[in-house]
């Protein structure tokens, strides 16, 4: 019986059994009530209906027998009545008799009480025998069907031997598999490898060429390759081989296979020393029309080396490799090999060629960039900084970090005000505890069932998620899912984000466990201890080197770095895990009710929302669950290890996949959702080209930090009270605006109803925003409290433009004013003769009070308000509170405290300061544009020229707009007349600041409208007309002041438009050699909320989004230049022994080292812009996008080439003046 029929039959049986006592006559009147209603129509086949009938009769017989035995124990008269009733039941519907009512039956039965063995008993016996026979027949049929079903569900043996297309190869394989004594297996293998498959047609040859050369894999191929690779990771090699054979044997599916997939399976068999299976795959490669490459032969030779094969077999393999045009030496240079694999490979080769010796390891490549020549020069003196900690302390910190990463998560005490342990709170915590036990058990069962189902599908030859579900044990997956459930916000999270994060964390935890099992942790410990000799304060090394250079000199890694899992596969795995979580986790509708007393509801559910005109799926927790969490007020938070700062210096970055955390894999370049092009660019980039970026990220990550405890105490005091929005301390949810309560009268006007709806929506929006800000602050402050007495490090990576970011997201120096004030350098420096002055100037800069004054005037102002500074340091919350009026209040307070400690020291020059002092670029984007165009007018506006006072470009633009307004007002333009007295620096600042980063006139108009709306005396009915007028005048003013800037922007925009219309995303290379590609494509749909078996769309290359490509190119190109300037400054500061970190175009160092950093910053800006940046960009774009165009696109390509070669002309500004500009960075 099929599973479907079995289910239907069982359901039918259930209905029969459940109907007893429900339908028909009441039980006290003696009826059985079995199926007396009208029969239902059925779509079942006649045979199935017969089976149902037999099954029902058999069950009916058992019920009747039980009833008879029950009635025989009762009174004779009642037995008689019921016997008559039962005897008449089978006759219903036959047409020959009618059913007597119970009352009539009682009257007619009075004289028959003394004859219990009447006619009804004979009919009952006869019916019993008939039903018994039918029951036996049914049991036989069911047994046969059950055996067939079990045979069908029984796992089929995995297929190892392939079905080949080539008849020659098939015959050779058969002979080889039989292994006749006259023809040894080695001879047969050599013959099989030398046979050529049947000649392909022209169409097949073209298709094969597309599979080999056509570079980019489709989404389906990505998933298939990832399936094979994951099978190797999880010891499911036989399953992978089975799926490979299934695809190879199917002509349609074989088109999906690539040489890399065959090589992956061959490599797995080679590591196990399984020669027979490896030969199967090798022959499949030939049968598919591929030519084995270096990796193919490396796997075969490695396997032979492990098995100690005969030299003649190895020699034949080497000869075949030479006939395929491959060089033996290249295996050791081009193929990533672990030390064990390299030894096995060499053992095989030496056996056949005893004189062979592998090529020496190539010397480390050296970056040849003109800009980095000084960084990597060995003939100039250097003074690389060391950490302030001794070797023994650093080794202890390494052990703590290692233990933290092995446990994969960190528990942190929450700084939220502790809840009073009332009866309600205790009950909520107990309920949560009990529910979590149930959820863990339910998740464990659901994961086992899911894995079993996926395994059956994989055994049918389908590449499922089964190996990915084996990355972790069920226990580890349950732990991961429970942490995900705990972290979901009340408003829910995008399902794509949840799925991606689940997949990433699963893969990351597997990599940690794998390194632990493969003894890589011990090797890392030895290597890292040697590396610490370079950083520790009490050790010396023979030759000073950059951290990356020193790490590489310690020898090659024990095992090649694993490639990251493709994003589509991570999404698919995460979607499967999220679906398990949704289906398995349930709770009572009333959590306070005892178990089983009310119905269960899902804790998570799917909803849809619109974000930026896109409909997206949201995974949202049930309000009852969130209420339970809120009531329980649990005192701990759980973070992933990679979300927390490191307790020891990070690993130096040595490749796009290796660096930062000790065990957890980290990407060098952050990816935009759904994009993978930049990762391929990095992998294809020569390693030496990335040295500048790798060394900068390592240097930024090596900066040691500590928490500013004095500031933290004050923030926590406000946070645990009611917060303070003015100071950036989010208030608790209890302070959120309450929506209007009560019911509206029926006669409420529609306008009033609409107003209340808007008010309700506003309150809900504000409440959600407050919750989000409060949660962000809770995470940051809890981590700060957790690390209060610790030294920690922030590993860095970069985005696709080269801009750098700390990896831990919740607690770093890139956040708000509050986040920056909580951090200070762990290593201090004496202030020296000028350090105190720089602290004072830094404080005035933070207040924003003297932006247009000279440095001397700012220093004088700080001395004038010294009483307020000291009062702020001593009585921050009860004194005059001068610090609260600053633009950056918390950083200003931290600076006040540092100045107070310094001036109260007998000799302020000896005071050891830990406070970072900032130097910020003056509208840095426009600075780069003015330098690119050698624009003298623009350069003067953004402080590239040495002047006595700092120039404020925003005030300059406002003044120019006012000139235009006066002219229009004199000509009688009404809107210009209305705007008199309203044009200020504040009104135009945001638009001027963002126009360099690609803001459109529409966006600029909205910015100006927002500023005008804040002016209470401005006529609100003219907002649109006034903002539209002003944005035009702002753009006209910028055109007047920055003519070269607008020309360069237009050239970049037009170039990007034509490139994207030709079907390509815009690419370029930064001056430091980082490859950049813009990740803006047509929207891709990720189906991540359907059932597990739902199809997924192909993630093949998508068309570029022309609008985003052209709007994004100018700002992204400028961002790549400011990141290059920062990296050059960082590397040269490190070479001079300075502590340096940055927030994009804001550079930080100790107060004593500001003068040195300022000199380096200016020198590197001049060196950067002394390069022919625009000319190099033009040449790269022409070579990349205009080479060998097709005939049909020659006209389009001609226009593109003409545009790309039309580099804007430059002015006469002398870049050397930047070196003497005081306010370039200040």
TrEMBL record:
One of its GO terms (cellular component) is mitochondrial DNA-directed RNA polymerase complex. Keywords: Coiled coil, DNA-directed RNA polymerase, Mitochondrion, Nucleotidyltransferase, Transcription, Transferase, Transit peptide. Residues 507-534 form a coiled coil. Residues 399-702 form the DNA-directed RNA polymerase N-terminal domain. Its EC number is 2.7.7.6. SUPFAM superfamilies: DNA/RNA polymerases. It catalyses: RNA(n) + a ribonucleoside 5'-triphosphate = RNA(n+1) + diphosphate. Residues 27-51, 92-123, 727-751, 1091-1112 are annotated as: Disordered. GO terms for molecular function: 3'-5'-RNA exonuclease activity; DNA-directed RNA polymerase activity; mitochondrial promoter sequence-specific DNA binding. PROSITE patterns: PPR (PS51375), RNA_POL_PHAGE_1 (PS00900), RNA_POL_PHAGE_2 (PS00489). Residues 729-742 have a biased composition (Pro residues). Belongs to the phage and mitochondrial RNA polymerase family. Homodimer. Component of the mitochondrial transcription initiation complex, composed at least of TFB2M, TFAM and POLRMT. In this complex TFAM recruits POLRMT to the promoter whereas TFB2M induces structural changes in POLRMT to enable promoter opening and trapping of the DNA non-template strand. Upon metabolic stress, forms a complex composed of FOXO3, SIRT3 and mitochondrial RNA polymerase POLRMT; the complex is recruited to mtDNA in a SIRT3-dependent manner. Also forms a complex composed of FOXO3, SIRT3, TFAM and POLRMT. This is DNA-directed RNA polymerase. It comes from Prolemur simus (Greater bamboo lemur). The gene is POLRMT.
């Amino acid at each position: 019986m099929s599973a479907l029929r079995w289910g239907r039959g069982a359901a039918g049986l259930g209905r029969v059994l459940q109907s007893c006592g429900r339908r028909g006559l009441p039980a006290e009147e003696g009826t059985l009530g079995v199926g007396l209603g009208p029969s239902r129509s059925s779509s079942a086949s006649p045979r199935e209906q017969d089976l149902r009938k037999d099954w029902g009769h058999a069950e009916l017989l058992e019920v009747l027998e039980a009833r008879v035995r029950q009635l025989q124990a009762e009174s004779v008269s009642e037995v008689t009545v019921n016997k008559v009733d039962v005897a008449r039941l089978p006759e219903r519907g036959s047409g020959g008799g009618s059913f007597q009512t119970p009352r009539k039956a009682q009257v007619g039965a009075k004289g028959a009480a003394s004859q219990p063995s009447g006619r009804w008993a004979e009919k009952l016996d006869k019916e019993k025998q008939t039903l018994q026979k039918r029951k036996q027949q049914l049991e036989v049929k069911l047994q046969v069907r059950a055996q067939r079903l079990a045979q069908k569900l029984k796992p089929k043996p995995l297929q190892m031997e392939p079905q080949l297309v080539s008849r020659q190869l098939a015959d050779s394989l058969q002979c080889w598999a039989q292994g006749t004594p006259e023809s040894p297996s080695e001879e047969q293998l050599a013959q099989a490898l030398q046979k050529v498959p049947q000649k392909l047609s022209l169409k097949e040859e073209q298709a094969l060429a597309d599979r080999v050369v056509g570079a980019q894999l489709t989404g389906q191929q990505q998933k298939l390759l990832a399936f094979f690779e994951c099978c190797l990771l999880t010891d499911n090699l036989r399953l992978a081989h089975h799926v490979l054979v299934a695809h190879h044997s199917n002509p349609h599916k074989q088109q999906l296979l690539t040489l890399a997939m065959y090589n992956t399976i061959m490599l797995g068999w080679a590591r196990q020393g399984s020669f027979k299976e490896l030969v199967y795959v090798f022959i499949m490669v030939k049968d598919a029309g591929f030519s084995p490459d270096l990796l193919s032969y490396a796997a075969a030779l490695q396997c032979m080396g492990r098995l100690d094969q005969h030299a003649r077999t190895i020699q034949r393999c080497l000869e075949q490799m030479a006939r395929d045009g491959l060089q033996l030496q290249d295996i050791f240079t081009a193929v990533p090999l672990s030390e064990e694999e390299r030894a096995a490979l060499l053992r095989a080769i030496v056996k056949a060629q005893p004189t062979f010796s592998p090529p020496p390891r190539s010397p480390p490549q050296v970056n040849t960039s003109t800009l980095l020549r000084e960084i990597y020069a060995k003939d100039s003196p250097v003074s690389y900084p060391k950490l302030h900690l001794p070797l023994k302390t650093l080794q202890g910190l390494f052990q703590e970090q290692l233990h933290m990463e092995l446990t994969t998560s960190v528990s942190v005490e929450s700084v939220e005000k502790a809840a009073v342990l009332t009866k309600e709170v205790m009950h909520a915590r107990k309920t949560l505890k009990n529910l979590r036990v149930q959820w863990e058990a339910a998740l464990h069962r659901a994961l086992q069932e899911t894995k079993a189902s996926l395994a059956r599908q994989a055994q049918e030859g389908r590449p499922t998620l089964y190996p990915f579900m084996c990355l972790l044990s069920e226990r580890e997956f349950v732990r991961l899912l429970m942490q995900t459930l705990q972290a979901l916000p009340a408003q829910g999270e995008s399902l794509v984000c949840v799925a991606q994060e689940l997949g990433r964390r699963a893969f990351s935890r597997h990599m940690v466990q794998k390194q632990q099992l493969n003894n890589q942790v011990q090797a890392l410990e030895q290597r890292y201890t040697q590396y610490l000799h370079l950083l520790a304060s009490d050790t010396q090394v023979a030759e000073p080197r950059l951290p990356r250079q020193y790490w590489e000199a310690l020898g090659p890694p024990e095992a090649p770095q694993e490639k990251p899992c493709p994003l589509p596969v991570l999404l698919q795995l995460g979607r499967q895990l999220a679906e398990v979580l949704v289906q398995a986790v349930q709770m009572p509708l009333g959590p306070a009710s005892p178990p089983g007393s009310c119905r269960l509801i899902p804790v998570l559910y799917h909803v849809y929302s619109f974000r930026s005109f896109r409909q997206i799926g949201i995974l949202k927790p049930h309000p009852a669950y969130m209420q339970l969490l809120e009531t329980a007020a649990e005192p701990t938070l759980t973070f992933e290890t990679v979300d927390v700062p490191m307790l020891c210096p990070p690993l130096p970055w040595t490749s796009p996949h290796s660096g930062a955390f000790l065990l957890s894999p980290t990407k060098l370049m952050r990816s935009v959702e759904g994009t993978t092009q930049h990762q391929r660019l990095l992998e294809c980039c020569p390693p030496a080209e990335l040295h500048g970026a790798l060394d900068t990220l390592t240097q930024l990550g090596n900066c040691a930090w500590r928490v500013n405890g004095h500031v933290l105490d004050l923030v926590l005091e406000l946070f645990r009270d009611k917060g303070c929005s003015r100071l950036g301390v989010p208030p608790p949810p209890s302070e959120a605006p309450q929506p209007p309560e009560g019911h509206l009268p029926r006669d409420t006007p529609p306008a009033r109803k609409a107003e209340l709806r808007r008010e309700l929506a506003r309150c809900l929006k504000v409440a959600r925003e407050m919750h989000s800000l409060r949660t962000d602050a809770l995470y940051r402050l809890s981590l700060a409290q957790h690390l209060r007495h610790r030294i920690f490090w922030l590993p860095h990576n970069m985005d696709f433009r080269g801009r750098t970011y700390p990896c831990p997201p919740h607690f770093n120096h890139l956040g708000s004013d509050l986040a920056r004030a909580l951090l200070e350098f762990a290593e201090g420096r004496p202030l020296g003769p000028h350090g105190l002055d720089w602290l004072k100037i830094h404080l005035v800069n933070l207040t924003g009070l003297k932006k247009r004054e000279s440095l001397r005037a700012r220093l004088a102002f700080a001395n004038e308000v010294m009483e307020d500074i000291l009062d702020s340091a001593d009585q921050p919350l009860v004194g005059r509170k001068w610090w609260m009026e600053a633009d950056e209040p918390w950083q200003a307070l931290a600076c006040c405290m540092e100045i107070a400690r310094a001036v109260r020291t007998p000799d302020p020059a000896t005071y050891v300061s830990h406070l970072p002092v900032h130097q910020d670029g003056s509208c840095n984007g426009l600075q780069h544009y003015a330098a690119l165009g050698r624009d003298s007018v623009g350069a003067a506006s953004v402080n590239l020229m040495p002047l006595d006072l700092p120039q404020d470009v925003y005030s300059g633009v406002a003044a120019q707009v006012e000139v235009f307004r006066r002219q229009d007002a004199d000509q009688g333009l009404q809107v210009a007349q209305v705007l008199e007295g309203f044009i200020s620096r504040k009104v135009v600042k945001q638009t001027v600041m963002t126009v360099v980063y690609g803001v459109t006139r529409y966006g600029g108009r909205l910015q100006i409208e927002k500023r005008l709306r804040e002016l209470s005396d401005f006529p609100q009915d003219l907002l649109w007309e006034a903002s539209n007028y002003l944005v035009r005048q702002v753009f006209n003013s910028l055109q007047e002041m920055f003519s070269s800037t607008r020309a360069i922007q237009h050239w970049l925009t037009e170039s990007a438009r034509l490139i994207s219309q030709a079907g390509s995303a815009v690419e370029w290379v930064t001056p430091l050699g980082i490859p950049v590609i813009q990740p803006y494509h047509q929207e891709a749909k990720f189906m991540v909320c359907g059932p597990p078996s739902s199809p997924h769309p192909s993630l093949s290359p998508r068309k570029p989004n022309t609008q985003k490509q052209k709007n994004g190119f100018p700002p992204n190109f400028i961002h790549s230049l400011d990141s290059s300037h920062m990296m050059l400054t960082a590397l040269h500061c490190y070479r001079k022994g300075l502590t340096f970190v940055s927030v994009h175009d804001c550079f930080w160092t100790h107060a004593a080292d500001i003068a040195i950093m300022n000199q380096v910053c200016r020198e590197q800006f001049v060196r950067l812009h002394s390069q022919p940046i625009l000319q190099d960009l033009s040449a790269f774009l022409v070579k990349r996008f205009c080479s060998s165009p097709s005939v049909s696109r020659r006209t389009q390509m001609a226009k593109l080439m003409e545009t790309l070669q039309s580099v804007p002309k430059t002015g006469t500004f002398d870049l050397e003046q930047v070196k003497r500009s005081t306010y370039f960075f200040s």
